[in-house]
Amino acid sequence: MKGETIIFYMLAAMTLVSALLAVSSRQLFRSAVYLLFSLIGIAGIYFWLHYEFVAAVQIVVYAGGIAVLIIFSIFLTQKSGEELPKQNSTRLMFSALAALAGFGLTILQVFNYTFIGTKDAAVDATVMAIGTRMLGMGKEGFALPFEVVSMLLLAAMIGCIVIAMRSKPETT
Amino acid sequence: MMEPGLYHILFVSAALFFIGIFGFFTRRNLITMLMSIELVLNSVCLNFIAFNKYLWPNKLDGVFFTVFIIAIAAAEAAVAIAIIINLYRSHNSIDVSTAEEMKF
Questions:
Q1: What is the pTM of this model?
Q2: Which of A34, A61, A122, B79 has the fewest CB atoms found within 10 Å of its own CB?
Q3: More confident residue, A119 or B104
C-alpha cells in the first residue's frame, strides 16, 4: 500500500470523526473546535488532490475566518461552562434514521452509476491559470460572477453592520 | 484497502452532508445549526472539486464554483451571526424555541 493511500484514509477519518463529534458534543465550545478540525481535514483532502489554491482559500476563509467568527459568537452569547440541554431521545432516533436512510439511498445511487469523464489532457490548477480565467472576459471567463460576488460581499457587510447595530435609546 | 478514487471522495462527501443534516435536525441552538450548515456547504465543495479532478481535468469550472461557494458561505455566516447576536440581545437566549413570535 502506498503512502498516498494511507494519507487519504487518515484525512477522511479525521474529517468524518470530528464532524460527528461537532454535531453531537454537548459543550458548545468543544463542538466549535471539532468543526475547525473537520474543516482542516477537508483542506487536507484538497491538498491531497493537488488543488493547492482551493486548499489555501479553505484554510484562510473557513479555518481562519468562519471558525473564529463562530467562536466569538459563542463567547458573546453563551455562559461559560454551561452544557446544552439533553436532547429528546425520540427526536434523536428519528433524525438519525432519516439521515441514515438518505445516506444509504445516495450511496446506492452513486455506486450504481458509472461516471464517464473526458480523456483530454489535464490543466494544471495553478494560481496563474485560475487568475487568468477568473478575470477573463472571453467565452470561458468568470469576470461577471466575480463582480457579482464582490457586490454580494459588500451588501453582506453593510447588512451585518445594520443588523448588529444597537439602536440608541430614545431621549425625548 | 483500495486505491482512493472518485467514489471514495463521493462517499466522504455524502457522509459529511448527512452528518450536517443530522446536526440540523437534532440541534436546537442557532450557533450549532449554523455549524451544521457549514458542514453541508463543505461537502458540496468537496463534490465539485472531486468531479473536476477525476472527470473533467481539462477544465477549471469546479475550482471556480468552489471558490464562489466559499465566498458566499462567508457572507452567509457573517449575516447569520449578526442576526444571532441581535436575537440574543432581545430574547437573552439563542435557542430556536424561545423565538416564536412569528409562529403561525
A1: 0.90
A2: A122
A3: A119
